[in-house]
Amino acid sequence: MSNCLPCHVLAASTVHCICSSHCSTDVDKYLVEQKEVDLNLRDKWDSTPLYYACLCGHEELVAYMLKNGARCEANTFDGERCLYGALNNEIRNLLKSYNVVSSKMMRRDLYEEFLRRLLERGLYEDVTFHVHGESFPAHKCILSARCHYFAELFRTRWMGRRDIHLRHQLVYPFAFKSLLQYIYTGQMETLIENIDDCKRLAKQCKMSKLLKEIDEKYKRLQSFESTKPGVTITTLLVESPLESISLQYDLGKLADLALPQELSKFVQGELPFEPEHAPVYADIVFNVQGYHFLCHKVFFCGRSDYFKALLIDHFGETDMSSDNLPIVNINGVSANIFSRVMFYMYQESCELTEDTVYDVLCCADLYLLPGLKRQCANCISKYISVDNVVQILLTSRLFVLPRLEDQCAEFIANNLDEVLRKQEFQEIVISDANEIKGRQETDSIGIIDDIRFHITSFVQTYSEMEEANERLRQIDDLLEELDLEG
């Protein structure tokens, strides 16, 4: 078989590579940019799409994947495996030129990337650790939510302290930094030679899950090295599976505790925190319809430029809570909808229903939260029907949601008979045609072009081709009736 291009699709969190000698990188771009398929999914052989592209020698696709966040860090399992399996030197050189790029840095609006920047740069920190001459600003709320050992010490020995000095001779700055990295981002990167020091500190902090992950990853690296002569891995990268939500779950505890008691679904003793660990170290109170949300500036300012401007420039507040925290009034939104936005701020997701999703979408747009907008779009896409597809299409354009717009076009392509004759659909066609200025021969009507793409893509059999041609004729007939060229 000739060198082939693997096209990868998402199915039950598994990568299925479909090899073909005539596939186009455009298909992969469509899957990544429109369908938002993750480039770092793994199949049952622990292989990623980038590995298969390297193995098959498709340089153009490798370059595209790297630019869009495929993982290839030097001296790590994934990086060395791709280098070892690359079909030619051109791809090896391409991989090496991107060896400092990680998917965490490339993905847009990524939750872990916000937390990584937060740890590296500091923002509204309320505690600083000093370890043998090095300082590490941190946040009590995050440390308490992620590690019961820290929660207990903040409640007892470290209560009220902003500066904490760790002087034990076996607590090294690099190990403490790695531990904080894992607490904040769910991943930890360290040199192989420092593993024992990191494990010792993790054991002291009673982080059994981290200990287990270090041991499992190290065994995998040893097994890989033993079967690949000449390969030496110097860096251990521990990270949770892409489908893991443990980080979001832990920080979601802060959102649970920030809810006003009148809105909380929990009762005392059923919260994720034990009652004695209940302090959440809030530093801002949002007043929404008379309900007080005990929140943290670090999450709101760190994730939203809207709230950053609101809180940093909010010098005129005069009201203070009973805990001596500034109160900021939020108008134009219900407490019910604001609570969903708040949960997104902390845990990257929130509960959405057909009744609430449009209100949350409006807030996401106002508060400059593109990730929440995409989640709303994903929710709305579940409710697309013949009756509402045109309205959803208009909504997708209004809020600049290209994936939802594409899903509407795909739905119309699959339900052409029922949608084509609707007056509101024909109005969109006319509107798109009127927007074309200085028409050239290659110009086409936006919505018609999108529908045609979905009709003609992935056609494989003669019967499918006949069906596609019939649907294309229906579109041509409509354009002729409307006196349009498209």
TrEMBL record:
<protein>
    <recommendedName>
        <fullName>BTB domain-containing protein</fullName>
    </recommendedName>
</protein>
<keyword id="KW-0040">ANK repeat</keyword>
<keyword id="KW-0677">Repeat</keyword>
<feature type="domain" description="BTB">
    <location>
        <begin position="282"/>
        <end position="354"/>
    </location>
</feature>
<feature type="domain" description="BTB">
    <location>
        <begin position="125"/>
        <end position="192"/>
    </location>
</feature>
<dbReference type="GO" id="GO:0000151">
    <property type="term" value="C:ubiquitin ligase complex"/>
</dbReference>
<dbReference type="GO" id="GO:0005737">
    <property type="term" value="C:cytoplasm"/>
</dbReference>
<dbReference type="Pfam" id="PF12796">
    <property type="entry name" value="Ank_2"/>
</dbReference>
<dbReference type="InterPro" id="IPR002110">
    <property type="entry name" value="Ankyrin_rpt"/>
</dbReference>
<dbReference type="Pfam" id="PF00651">
    <property type="entry name" value="BTB"/>
</dbReference>
<feature type="repeat" description="ANK">
    <location>
        <begin position="45"/>
        <end position="77"/>
    </location>
</feature>
<dbReference type="InterPro" id="IPR000210">
    <property type="entry name" value="BTB/POZ_dom"/>
</dbReference>
<dbReference type="InterPro" id="IPR044515">
    <property type="entry name" value="ABTB1"/>
</dbReference>
<dbReference type="InterPro" id="IPR036770">
    <property type="entry name" value="Ankyrin_rpt-contain_sf"/>
</dbReference>
<dbReference type="InterPro" id="IPR011333">
    <property type="entry name" value="SKP1/BTB/POZ_sf"/>
</dbReference>
